[in-house]
Amino acid sequence: MQRMAQTFQKTDGDIAAVVATMVHAPEFADTLKAGAKFKDPLHYAISAVRLAYDNKVVLNTLPIQNWLNRLAEGLFNHETRMDIRWSPPPGAARDR
User: Fold this and answer.
1) What are the b/e assignments for 18-39, b being 16+ CB within 10 Å?
2) What separation in angstroms does the CA of 74 have from each of 32, 36, 62, 65?
3) Are 12 and 22 in contact (CB under 8 A)?
4) Which of 12, 45, 48, 55 maximizes the CB count within 10 A of its CB?
5) Could you tell me the end-to-end alpha-carbon distance of the chain, in angstroms, rounded to an integer?
6) Who contacts 14 (Cβ-Cβ below 8 Å, separation ≥6)?
7) What Cα–Cα distance (Å) separates residue 57 from each residue in 45, 74, 83?
């Protein structure tokens, strides 16, 4: 973040330069490695709400659903990672 802030100040707010600083940062490259933690837009939205509401119960989830729909990531309407495999729990019946 510090490098991005410095780029923003040096370039008088050139967003392209700031994004270039971000994608060339070693921290960004680390997030692309296999096994790195991945957060999709749904999880980002929920994390933001949890932070804003200090982990209190959210009674009206409609605004959250609207945010996700505006991102084209509505509930049950978003792409999933293809490298995640589902395995039934031990002892569960399997298709034969």
Assistant:
1) beebeeeeeeeeeeeeeeeeee
2) 24, 24, 11, 6
3) no
4) 45
5) 52
6) 7, 8
7) 15, 20, 32
Q: What amino acid is encoded at 32 in this protein?
A: L
User: Cα(3)–Cα(23) distance, rounded to whole angstroms?
Assistant: 11
Helix (H, G, I), strand (E, B) or coil at 4: helix
Pair of tokens at residue 53? 């509401």
45-63 pLDDT, tens digit per residue, is 888 888 998 888 889 989 9
pLDDT tens digits, 5-19: 999 999 999 999 999
- The secondary structure of 25-83, three-state, reads CHHHHHHCCCCCCCCCHHHHHHHHHHHHCCCCCCCCCHHHHHHHHHCCCCCCCCCCCCC
Structure tokens that stand for 86 in this block: 């589902």
20 is written with which tokens?
């270039």
